[in-house]
């Protein structure tokens, strides 16, 4: 029974970590804001113990800094951390794409092709440049992007690779790539084309091209994020 309780506690902490990460990435919890243990415990209907452990894990990931008697403050990873995380993630996801080109089935290919239309829809919707249109474009893009990359990683058939990539995702706020794209229609269309080329290479069973395109895709995202972050830092 003790082991079962420990597993349940670990799952609870992990779910809080994942949800807080999503909320930070989505901008629901802003960079620089404070996370109070008491408030989070009330929101999730749990004691402060799993919340405290979740915040410690987020601190280890470089997402928050814990300040005595104040709580945990959300911090943005340094440019070096972001660049290095994207570099490693690109290599890992590139290998996942190579394996997916070897192992993927028709069902997964259909899912990938379905995201092509969603990426294009997000780009077209962003063209309206209204607050509502951009919010809808963002939602569609997030849906397509998550489905696209998850499908490839799972299709690789390598669980250890999947776990390694997931750990890296936790080091980068989820909304950074969208923020870097900035609702720019041209950038969104380029992004859609990059995804489509990766899908085509995987469908053609062209393992090396799928890998190389995925690595380049990650490098491009890294460049945009670093450039946008520098611009925001210099203007603040």
Automatic annotation (TrEMBL):
Keywords: DNA-binding, Transcription, Transcription regulation. InterPro entries: GntR_C, TF_FadR/GntR_C, Tscrpt_reg_HTH_GntR, WH-like_DNA-bd_sf, WH_DNA-bd_sf. GO terms for molecular function: DNA binding; DNA-binding transcription factor activity. The keyword Ribonucleoprotein does not apply. Residues 10-77 form the HTH gntR-type domain. This is DNA-binding GntR family transcriptional regulator.
């Amino acid at each position: 029974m003790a082991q079962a309780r420990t597993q349940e506690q670990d799952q609870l902490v992990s779910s809080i970590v994942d949800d807080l990460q999503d909320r930070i990435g989505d901008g629901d919890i802003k960079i620089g804001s404070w996370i109070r243990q008491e408030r989070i415990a009330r929101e999730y209907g749990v004691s402060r113990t799993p919340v405290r452990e979740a915040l410690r894990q987020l601190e280890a990931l470089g997402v928050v800094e814990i300040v005595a008697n104040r709580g945990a403050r959300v911090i943005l990873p340094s440019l070096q951390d972001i660049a290095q995380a994207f570099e490693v993630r690109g290599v890992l996801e590139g290998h996942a794409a190579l394996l997916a080109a070897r192992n993927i089935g028709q069902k997964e290919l259909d899912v990938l092709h379905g995201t092509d239309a969603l990426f294009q829809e997000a780009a077209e919707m962003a063209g309206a440049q209204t607050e509502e249109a951009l919010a809808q474009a963002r939602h569609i893009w997030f849906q397509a992007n998550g489905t696209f990359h998850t499908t490839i990683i799972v299709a690789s058939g390598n669980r250890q690779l999947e776990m390694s990539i997931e750990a890296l995702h936790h080091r980068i706020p989820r909304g950074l790539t969208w923020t870097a794209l900035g609702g720019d229609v041209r950038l969104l269309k380029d992004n859609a084309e990059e995804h489509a080329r990766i899908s085509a290479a995987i469908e053609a069973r062209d393992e090396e091209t799928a890998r190389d395109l995925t690595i380049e895709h990650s490098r491009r995202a890294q460049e945009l994020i670093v450039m946008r972050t520098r611009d925001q830092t210099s203007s603040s």
